[in-house]
Amino acid sequence: MKHLFSTILMLSLLFSTACSGGSDQLEDGNESDDDTVMTQEEAQEELDEITETVGLSKEVSILNESDIDKFIETIVPMTKELEALSLEIEESSPNDQNWEAMLAQPKVVAILDKYGWDNGFFAKSMVISMGYAYAKGMEEYDKMEDDAASQQAKTMMKQMMGPMMEQMNDADLALVASNTAKLDDVINEMNEMDR
């Protein structure tokens, strides 16, 4: 299990990028010898496991404007610490890993606390990152001409991200969509960290 938080963020951003045909990190289902490349199926399985672990619920709104502001303020330094810790955990117990165990580690909890978050952070960050990826993807597709290829790309994105979006509260997704401009810089910075 690589990079505790950035896996969540990058899987969501890869879905968005893959829908526009620009991802070299998310394959179309073919096997790859490169362990940094995920198939769409592998990415969906990983997201499903994470979603279940963090306890997302369509019925319950979990975000407010201050969560988005705190995400923008804390995500880069916190992610650096979480990634370093996840590598440390992997090295010390590589065969005993699952998302629930990783998120319950006392050192993970201490990092979250340091930045003013609790264990609800992972669900909130997932809604922010997935909601952002979906909103940005839909913005791009809305700018395209209304031709068959554009409609096919938009349909593919909805199929890929639809199951995840169905697990998230509509009010939370609308809040994220209304804040994409505020999130652009930090999401771009996160993308650069993983290159």
Protein topology:
Layout: H1 4-19, E1 26-27, E2 38-39, H2 40-54, H3 65-92, H4 99-104, H5 106-114, H6 121-143, H7 148-165, H8 170-177, H9 180-193
Parallel strand pairs: 1-2
Helix pairs in contact: 1-2, 1-6, 1-7, 3-5, 3-9, 6-7, 6-8
Structure write-up:
The chain has about 200 residues and is an all-alpha fold. The chain has 9 helices and 2 strands; from the N terminus they run H-E-E-H-H-H-H-H-H-H-H. It is globular, with a radius of gyration of 16 Å. The two termini are about 15 Å apart. About 10% of the residues have low confidence.
Separation, N- and C-terminal Cα atoms: 17 Å
Residue share in helices? over 70%
Number of strands: 2
Note the total helix count. 9
Radius of gyration: 16 Å
Largest sheet, strands/sense/barrel: 2 strands, parallel
Q: What's the mean pLDDT score?
A: 75
* Secondary-structure element pattern, one letter each: HEEHHHHHHHH
Q: In brief, what are we looking at here?
A:
70% of the residues lie in helices and 2% in strands. With 195 residues, it is mainly alpha-helical.
